Amino acid sequence: MTHDIAVIPGDGIGTEVTPAAVEVLEALEIDFEFHEADAGDAVKAETGEALPEETDDLAASADATLFGAAGDTAADVILPLREAVDSFVNVRPATAYPGIDAVRPETDLVFLRENTEGVYAGHEDRLSEDVSTLTRVVTESASRRLAEFACDYVEDGAHDGFTIVHKANVMRETDGRFRDTVAEVADERGVATDEVLMDAFATRVCLDPEQFDVVVCPNLAGDVLSDLAAGLVGGLGLLPSANVGPERGLFEPVHGTAPDIAGEGIANPAATILSAAMLVEFLGYDEAGAAVREAVEATLEEGPRTPDLGGDASTDEVTAAIVDRL
Amino acid sequence: MTHDIAVIPGDGIGTEVTPAAVEVLEALEIDFEFHEADAGDAVKAETGEALPEETDDLAASADATLFGAAGDTAADVILPLREAVDSFVNVRPATAYPGIDAVRPETDLVFLRENTEGVYAGHEDRLSEDVSTLTRVVTESASRRLAEFACDYVEDGAHDGFTIVHKANVMRETDGRFRDTVAEVADERGVATDEVLMDAFATRVCLDPEQFDVVVCPNLAGDVLSDLAAGLVGGLGLLPSANVGPERGLFEPVHGTAPDIAGEGIANPAATILSAAMLVEFLGYDEAGAAVREAVEATLEEGPRTPDLGGDASTDEVTAAIVDRL
Ligand SMILES: CC(C)[C@H](C(=O)O)[C@@H](O)C(=O)O
Ligand SMILES: CC(C)[C@H](C(=O)O)[C@@H](O)C(=O)O
């Protein structure tokens, strides 16, 4: 069976790390067909569209999409793409690796971020000269769907349960609904949960990240708190993510275009290759996914390494080392 | 001139650290009259009201209010009290102290948090069986008032400028308005600013807190990011805050009721005493405020210390040591 993969490198180092991840995918014994498409600042400068219709269509019909990064147009690219694949959850592991400098080397978390609503579904208005508003949306159906996913995730990975993060002491109706719905589903499924306020989570995860494992949260909370966890593990350079829908998925590094080093051939491909590992697992090849992850981990630990991790290897050299270890 | 100070200890360790701060205030050569009032879980259990009208009235008429902490009713107490004193900015310094264990000992930040709107002014609705909404509010007038305060703060403290934190790539109208208004005021005033997205701030402040100094942000961003900074300096136990209005102010530690140690006489009074120092400065006594802060800092460095900081002193002993150093 052939899997159609949309490949959208985007801008900056996206154009360097995405081909690296494709190289790793090509080294697996899986039948992929790759279809490349444009998105981001560069194509916008040329055509006026940050996300050309062909690209959107491609993501909407491919079995899975691998995305690199986009510059100033990031929100115009990534938010519609998440919708194109109908992804309802953004899976963001934040793991520190042995030998890599980290503020909190014991960090090993995974965020399951609601991916369709909250302020991201926000309708905005200018009500008067003075007043602007945004309507934040929380639905029971989206909360329930996320919770079912979280329960499957906990069961499949033999986790002890999950933590619900919210701000229901202030957003009583919306986050209260999120919290109650998620807790209720988990309860029905026999999955253990605890809950913590978003602000308290921010303090506690710095002081002792080991007290958390799987973290389920609304959209913006997931955005900010997973980036906080990225800070604890040493930066965005190593964090993959998966936008998962019922049939399709979109896989992207958490980092951006890194304009300071773009074009030099020294971008760290680890986050994108780890995202490709999530893609492979999403398609059902658990062993191949694990093999890619182990090859990346071994390369992080033993080298070669790119300059952001204190090494002097190029993107190509690191990619070749990962392929060698497969 | 006599200053009327409302004193609202609240629940848990609030009832231990608030009297400690009053003791320090009494040791200053300033003419205070203290008026104590109830708020929180305990008075709610008795009377059905977490914030009795007398307490609200007292805060609304006192020159300044010192608040301790409240338990489950925290939001029902603190949000109306912030309104009662008409506070439009929440000033939250997050500073690591020599000799105190911190994830990031070089942290020295101050958050100027918008204190009246955002999701906190949110009107919530249940639109249908499935859909709940919250209307987030951002006004030009509140953004402008905060920006003027931030400019004064930067000028008075000889800071280089401030950083505007926002999520305007998603909340284009509301946070876009916040960012543009704040930047425009600063520009008119000749105060330098830069800007960073809320999620990027979370990563960057972990990796290198020294790149930031004064941080201006919307209400919920300030809540979460200042708690994140609390994690970097070693916990909530040392963080004071000032809710500042045009005429009155409300001063409170960032920590909560600490039910695990409440009643044992070992709560760390530093955050509340540092909040009292902010109160004293708010009333115009800059030297007395600085003296209190220095006495707290010397005591943190040289002891005695409460158990949360590895010592074995009581709240009373630490308070006495601070008073002695005045
Ligand atoms: C680019 C932006 C819209 C996006 C988000 O807020 O989700 C990014 O920060 C992310 O987390 O992927
Ligand atoms: C208790 C709660 C409503 C409050 C807030 O969200 O502002 C608290 O977290 C704080 O920061 O003082």
From TrEMBL, chains A, B:
<dbReference type="GO" id="GO:0006102">
    <property type="term" value="P:isocitrate metabolic process"/>
</dbReference>
<dbReference type="GO" id="GO:0004449">
    <property type="term" value="F:isocitrate dehydrogenase (NAD+) activity"/>
</dbReference>
<comment type="similarity">
    <text>Belongs to the isocitrate and isopropylmalate dehydrogenases family.</text>
</comment>
<keyword id="KW-0560">Oxidoreductase</keyword>
<dbReference type="Pfam" id="PF00180">
    <property type="entry name" value="Iso_dh"/>
</dbReference>
<protein>
    <submittedName>
        <fullName>3-isopropylmalate dehydrogenase</fullName>
    </submittedName>
</protein>
<dbReference type="GO" id="GO:0006099">
    <property type="term" value="P:tricarboxylic acid cycle"/>
</dbReference>
<feature type="domain" description="Isopropylmalate dehydrogenase-like">
    <location>
        <begin position="4"/>
        <end position="322"/>
    </location>
</feature>
<dbReference type="InterPro" id="IPR024084">
    <property type="entry name" value="IsoPropMal-DH-like_dom"/>
</dbReference>
